[in-house]
Amino acid sequence: MNDVLWEPDDGVGLEHLRYETGPLSAESVVLSGRDGERFRFRYALDCDADGRVRSVSVDSFDGDATLRLLTDGDGRWTDADGAPIPELDGCLDADISGTPFTNALPIRRLDLAAGESATLSMVYVSVPSLAVSKVRQQYTCLAPVDADGGRFRYESLTSGFSAEIPVDSDGVVRDYPNLFRRID
Questions:
Q1: Tens digits of per-residue pLDDT, 91-150?
Q2: Could you read off the pLDDT of 44-93 as tens digits, one per residue?
Q3: How far apart are CA 177 and CA 60, in angstroms?
Q4: Residue 52, C-beta contacts closer than 8 angstroms, at least 6 positions apart
Q5: Which of 7, 51, 66, 153 would give a disulfide with 140, using CB separation of 3.0 to 4.6 Å?
């Protein structure tokens, strides 16, 4: 079991993540105070042996908001009751706002070599609302993951945001410039 703590650069808060590799599974609690809004949520996700997301759950501590998503690993998503969500078709990974951890999903799954890029459709979960949408993102490997870590350029093709993010030897974000910093 691995433990990681992050704090936001632009507000008060803390994330405590616990994860296992092979296959990747994670559970986390996030306390946030950004943009004058305070909220708390927990999330869990599980991947298969090939690094494809199979389940995502997000629960708000500040109300009754709960989200459960399941996927077949080939880009077809359903809700917890098995009802298809066709607007998410083609997404292999999930990106939960409010945490840097979900960047590890495509970084680990794709195993890009230096200079390689991949453009992806992602399930984007906005917190605290738990609204779900499909977004396009690009990852470019600047330095592949090795025993000392690696470095990637993340680009949101939906919003235009981009950042260079260093990762550890598990592909998990160390620091996310101007957003999160690891404190463990």
A1: 999 999 989 999 999 999 999 999 999 999 999 999 989 999 999 999 999 999 999 999
A2: 999 999 999 999 999 988 777 899 999 999 999 999 999 999 999 999 99
A3: 26
A4: 71, 73, 74, 92, 109
A5: 153
Q: What pLDDT sits at residue 184?
A: 72
Kindly report the number of other CB atoms within 10 A of residue 104's CB atom: 25
DSSP string, the chain: -EEEEEEESSSEEEEEEEEETTTTEEEEEEEEEGGG--EEEEEEEEE-TTS-EEEEEEEESSSS-EEEEEE-SSS-EEETT--B-GGGTT--EEEETT-SGGGHHHHHHH-PPTT-EEEEEEEEEETTTTEEEEEEEEEEEEEEEETTEEEEEEEETTT--EEEEEE-TTS-BSEETTTEEE--
Counted domains in the chain: 1
Q: What is the pLDDT of residue 42?
A: 96
How much is the pTM? 0.93
Tokens of 70: 């399941």
Give the closest residue to 95 by CA, choosing from 150, 33, 161, 142: 161
Quote the domain boundaries for residue 130.
2-182
Instruction: Average the pLDDT over 145-173 and give the result.
Output: 95
